[in-house]
Amino acid sequence: MAARARFSLSPFYFFLLNAFLYLPLLLLVIFSFNDSTSLVFPLRGFTLQWYRDLMQTPELIESVVNSLLLAVGSGLAATVLGTLAAIGLVRFRFAGRGLFLSITAMPLVIPSVVLAVALLIGLIQLNVPLSLWTVGLGHVVISLPVVVMIVAARLVGISATLEEAAMDLGTTFWGAQWRVTLPLAMPAIVAGFLNAFTTSFDEFALAFFLIGRQPTLPIYLYSQLRFPSRLPLVVAVAALIIAGSVLLIIFTEWLRRWGSEE
Amino acid sequence: MTKMHKQLWQGCIYLCAAVLMTACVNAIPSSPADAPAASGPLTVLEWAGYDEPQYYQPFAANHPDGDIEFAYLDQDSDAYAKMQSGFQIDVVHPCSNWWGVWVQAGLVQPIDTTRLSNWSGISPKLAALGNFDGQQYFVPWEWGFDSILVRTDKIEKMPESWGDLWDPAYAGRLSIADMPEVNHATAALALGIKDPWQTTPEQNEAIKQKLIELKPNVLTYWTGSTELSQLVASGDVWIASNVWPDTYGTLLDEGVQVAYLEPKEGRLGWVCGYGISANAEHVDLAYEYLDALISPESMAQEANDFWYGAANMDALPLIDESVVKLFELDDPTVLDRTIFYETMSEEQRAEVTEMWDEVKASQ
Amino acid sequence: MERNKLSWLTLFIGPSALWLLLLFVLPMGAMALFTFRAGSFGAEREVFTLEHYRDFLSQHSYHLLLWRSTWMSLWVAVLSIVLSYPVAHYLVFRAGDRRILYLLILMVPGWISFLLRIFAWKVILGSGGALNSLLLWSGLIHEATPILLYSPLAVVVVLVYVWIPFAALPIFASLQRIDNSLLEAAADLGSPQWETFLRVVLPLSMPGVGAAFFLVFIPTLGEYVTPLLVGGVNGIMYGNVIQSQFSRALNWPLGSLLSLVMLVVVLPIMLLFNRLIKLEEIVEI
To answer: Yes or no: is domain A45-93+104-241 CATH 1.10.3720.10?
Structure first.
């Protein structure tokens, strides 16, 4: 019991860290209601002006939707591909395994603007029209390494004998993966998806070069920031995204409670 | 049902939600970006912010259903690179320091100015910057200064020339642009070089040394107008170089005590404008759009909203008096007193960029 | 069984191998070829030269920056891991079935534009900011100045701040493999908690630590936004040069060369690190 008490520092640390992470978010929400174009104290007074302006800027809303689609889509694709690859890497010995592993890690080393130009040249030569899809292709490339590493780091802990035991009991290999490995690896897979989603949602370089005429949020936002007078609008979008995220967190907690009933 | 399977189910619920969301959004009539081009809308590579109908009023009135679609650019170089790689678009909006390379690379086509009913009002000086080998390739639209801005409540000694930026009195309170050619021009003017766009190798070396000497004064480099106005409004930066008029206007509106100076060598100036892409698919629409952009009412709207000058002089009576006064837009000599950026060749730009990287890397 | 294994292997490895081959290996091969081209566009692109290699070798500022950035990235990676480990530990051993919820809470700030979050921090730490007002009021300082901002140190601090949630993910994943009953058994045997941690928990989580190091160190080396925003005049990193060659000078050959050099630098560091913490455990057991 005494030993446990010493570790009670960790919730406090977790709380403190999150306070640091959320402090700027809180400020952004406050400034989104502030009657001024600069983010400077003291506050000038309450206004809903920026949200009204927002409603009149359909391109901005559209870009948020585009980014959400892109992040969910490329996140899911990277998670599926990455999880499969991680299982393959951990469970099998095969020729070229080391090579595959190092190539998987390499997209991390290449700055995304380099990859972006490389892909742009290739895609245009092949006459592939630029669109959200082409950005998605690129985003999967940069998210894949992360998913592979996170899921693999979990899978090495799941002993293969557990799967073998399941197979001895009459399940197929696939059945063993589905019933044993996947549920055990689920938290890691979710972590991988969260990472891929987050990477894609705020990514600029690849998106700029590979997009057609449907801007993603970062593209629209950076382009807007050329004009100081547009800053509050951008802050208001951020505040809305924060609100949406809080709803998602609440939903997750509700789902957890539902899950732990019975 | 084990707990783990419940977690699996939870994952499935999220998955379904994600798929549903995708489906819903796809059900919304999607933007015609994927439609075959030729018959589709006019496409414009544009800075976000100019994409609203009040800046191309006659066109918007003629095409109530839109008929126009925007792709966005973030900086000139990226737009140029994307076009060089074969990006398909009708109308482009680069700035004067890039116009020449666009023309040289064959990315834009000559413009028949007789097809533009509002062309007559365009300032000849600005039009000349878009004219290459006797042919008009770019229609100038918005222009502005590149000058020194100070916090009058923080600084006692006002700088009078570009060279005064080096005054140790401003140590740690200066911000300069993180833009190679801008600083190249500033240092050239401070050194008394008359034509910053045709410098000799010896002059380039002197410019580099001069910029390294400026480092103790610099708190940070600014990368965009919005970042800069934040820096000045917060009081981190008291004096800033190569500031655009909209930064000044925004800060004035905010009640920050700032002044926008005219160095004795003259202010630097930039102008941006529209060209019709060489691979344009909607040339007629493009002409109609260009004509709408330079109509006096559209141009005045631009000047009033962004504090930039209007290339069409006929717009002057429609521009707010405060904006006209602030930037002396009604003074016929103002354009001549301003040193406008000229095109840098790809080679020059590479050289200047390398110079700037060395300055930044030096300790 | 052997044939079976082969088909499973194709199913697991095949899709991502194909994806990476087409969308990464081939395009990057083209970029490696680009280092020999004279220019990025037009006729110059068809001319082959070693000029950029000479250019790189003679530019000492590039070498200096690379050296400095490598050190900064090492610091960032190590600090991120040290600061995120307790978070991951907390999530796995204390959060119970709330762990996914807490993970989500940790990641949400990353969904908000990095630029805006930095703007917000400048509001707190800047001259007109809350902290300065407090210090002025207390009489500790007499003139408001930006705190911490605009220095190489600021770059390290901001990057660590940004990376903590990301570094926590792989550590979180690897700590999951540790059976709680193992820890209880150790406690029952009277082993002090720190000893259990050092002997059992830490070694078992090493694969996660290795992955976290990868995930932070490598992208940091190519980072360019943070140095621009908070680095001041002396905080510039190697990634800024790549960025400026690629996107400003449009000198793609030199830009490609600079990034290849980075790849070459990263490899030995990875190997060394691999030795130190047995990185292969990530995928071999």
So the answer is: yes
